[in-house]
């Protein structure tokens, strides 16, 4: 089981080992991509039907009036007008042919959209001011279909397990019975790392899953673990509630970090509310880890990959704090080991580092 399934990597790996697997993913874009990859690996004939629908749609371009005002303004910075109209024609064709809820069709066209943008991806965010050579939609379609077809052909050699991806937060997993899982393998959102809603802004706008910035907060950010200051709406007023939900042994260290961050914020020009980020993040992670302990069989292992953080130069030892929380919710035999140093690409004059240095860690714990 992977409580942060993302785009389905752990489920695909489980399939390759003939294991049954279940994942939870609250982000609507990642959930659809993950289901297409992990649950639809043998649909070769279906893939060709999707390609035919897309090609028909390319020949029937649609104007930007089908987009919301904010969505059109943003997408017009990423595509030339003819390309965007061609891609919207493909989207309409899929809808007309009954592929609205088809995850494989969503994956194929989303990848084509990314390839046809003339803007680079800077790290994980689309940068409208940057430039790359865009693909023609028909060429991109051919490449994407061929790539997926080759993956499917490889998959036929595998004795795949059964995978399921649930589009919901793993803070509660009511459809999983107690003691029904043999291993948890996951990597949760890192504290103050990526805004996963902003990362997918182009796709959300293109598909009409959001039409403005407020929509993104309401339909995506509100469903995710609070890991960035951009996601604090609705959480600022619940600080004490979150604090009280965290196992007591972890609270003193969190209190100390919050006090330091509050003091730092008073002296900083940007005044980022990092102090309000700590309790929500670790409270929600407590809920997820408690559910993991509930569904794991006695003696089973949980493997968690996570990084520490430095907010305004204040070190947050996320792996050690999560290990303490795991002990509080029913795990034992807990070990934390450094996998690799991290953060070189984040070293900027405007950003405070951490005296301890940053890294990614493997937490191994037994139910």
Kindly, what is the distance between the CA atoms of the first and last residues, rounded to a whole number of angstroms? 14 Å
Q: What is the subunit organization of this protein?
A: single chain
> Radius of gyration, Cα only, in angstroms?
22 Å
Mean pLDDT: 92
List the helices and strands and how they pair.
Blueprint: H1 9-16, E1 21-24, H2 28-39, H3 44-58, H4 69-75, H5 81-96, H6 103-116, E2 121-122, E3 125-126, H7 137-155, E4 163-166, E5 181-186, H8 196-199, H9 201-207, H10 213-219, H11 239-244, H12 251-267, H13 278-295, E6 296-307, E7 309-311, E8 314-316, H14 318-328, E9 332-342, E10 358-366
Helix pairs in contact: 1-2, 2-6, 3-5, 3-7, 5-6, 6-7, 13-14
Short description:
This protein is of the alpha/beta class. 44% of the residues lie in helices and 15% in strands. The model is unreliable at 346-350 (pLDDT under 50).
Account of the protein in words:
This protein has 367 residues and is of the alpha/beta class. The chain has a domain at 227-366. It is 44% helix and 15% strand. It is built from 14 helices and ten strands. The protein has helices spanning 9-16, 28-39, 44-58, 69-75, 81-96, 103-116, 137-155, 196-199, 201-207, 213-219, 239-244, 251-267, 278-295, 318-328, and strands at residues 21-24, 121-122, 125-126, 163-166, 181-186, 296-307, 309-311, 314-316, 332-342, 358-366. A four-stranded mixed sheet has the order 5-6-10-9. It has a two-stranded parallel ribbon with strand order 1-4. A hairpin with a 2-residue loop joins strand 7 (309-311) and strand 8 (314-316). The longest helix is centred in the middle third of the chain and has 19 residues, at 137-155.
